Amino acid sequence: MKIALIAHDKKKNDMINFTVAYAPILKHHTLFATGTTGFKINEATGLDIKRFQSGPLGGDQQIGALIAENDLDLVLFFRDPLTAQPHEPDVSALMRLCDVYQIPLATNVASAELFIRSLERGDLDWRKIIDERESDKK
């Protein structure tokens, strides 16, 4: 599966701790991240991560483009709900795209753990079924 990892500044340590804890699961998947988050995750875990721009510099939109192309399966976006974000319209657009394209979106550690455990059990295989149906239509 293709997984995006994004974290606001005050949530980056949560994301790093999460990826360290779940590296044995994440290493079997294709990972994408916004700039600084991806750098810090790679530094802490050694996981191979395709890095985009920083979120405020277009990274959220680059990940949104993957969603719009049906080229992403899961988004883990640790948001900071208590701090105003200058790129909030980009954040909202990314979340809207997840809803439009039926991409599971975790916005905190608790929901991300549910998704990762489901991924480990194979419960998110429905994305593969959808992808196969879309391929058959072409």
Oligomer: single chain
> Looking at this structure, what is the CATH superfamily?
Methylglyoxal synthase-like domain
What's the CATH class label? Alpha Beta
Sheet with the most strands: spatial strand order: 3-2-1-4-5
Mean pLDDT score: 90
The number of distinct β-strands equals 5
Distance between the termini: 21 Å
CATH architectural designation = 3-Layer(aba) Sandwich
The global form is globular
Helix count from the secondary structure assignment? 7
Order of helices and strands: EHHEHEHEHEHH
**Percent helix:** 40-55%
EC number: 4.2.3.3
Family: Belongs to the methylglyoxal synthase family.
Active site: 60
Protein name: Methylglyoxal synthase
Secondary-structure blueprint of this entry?
Layout: E1 2-7, H1 12-21, H2 23-26, E2 30-33, H3 35-45, E3 49-51, H4 59-68, E4 74-78, H5 88-100, E5 105-106, H6 109-121, H7 126-137
Parallel strand pairs: 1-2, 1-4, 2-3, 4-5
Helix pairs in contact: 1-3, 4-5
Structural summary, described in words:
It is an enzyme of class 4 (lyase). The protein is an alpha/beta fold and 138 residues long. The protein contains seven helices and five strands, in the order βααβαβαβαβαα. Strands 3-2-1-4-5 form a five-stranded parallel sheet, sandwiched between helices.
Which descriptors apply to this entry?
138 residues; Rossmann fold; alpha/beta
Can you describe this structure in just a few lines?
With 138 residues, this protein is an alpha/beta fold.
